[in-house]
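Subject: for your reference before the review

Hello V.,

The reviewers asked for a structural picture of the protein, and I figured it would be easier to keep everything in one thread rather than splitting it across files. Below is the amino acid sequence we used in the manuscript, unchanged from the supplementary table.
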Amino acid sequence: MAEKKEIRQTILKSREQMPADDWRRFSDRICASVMELQAYGQAKCLLLYVNFGREVDMRPLFQDAWKKGKRTAVPKVLGDGRMEFYVIRDFRELRPGFKGILEPVEGMMVTPVEHVFMIMPGVAFDQEGGRIGYGKGFYDRYLALHPNLLRAAVSFESQIVPRIPSGPYDMRPDWLITEARTIRIE
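And here is what came back from the structure prediction:
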């Protein structure tokens, strides 16, 4: 846990110092690479996140999905500590929620079945799909309930580290996408 905490602090500090022009350009490249995935193209519903701080900006994916008639859903942290995804059709349906992160005020909860594709955030990753989130385990618990859900993690290349310590409850993505490459996790 101490090693994860140290990695988290180092990467968050570095990421928050990224120049705005790089953040925008790299986010656009990452989103374009996501759109090239077959899983994205076949998805009828996307489980996205609303970026907080200098996380990869998801606006291009929301805009593309809405243009193509795909449903989009974003996470909401519930009072019992669970995270669920709720459909949104517009950014105006969001208000600050858990830790000030924009969440849906209300709406229809999504139950992942066929043709659902998740994009997951994170703080740090390794090339084998090891992931460090923000330390609350929301995505790991959600994915434990939906283990067959196809998912990609998005990250800036600067967030890739040699090795992430992982345990039995840490859920890996199927793809890791940065501004420089797409890694298929086996």
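For the response letter, the relevant points are probably these. Residues 2-184 form a domain with the Rossmann fold fold (CATH 3.40.50.10420). The chain has five helices and eleven strands.

Happy to draft the paragraph if you're swamped.

O.
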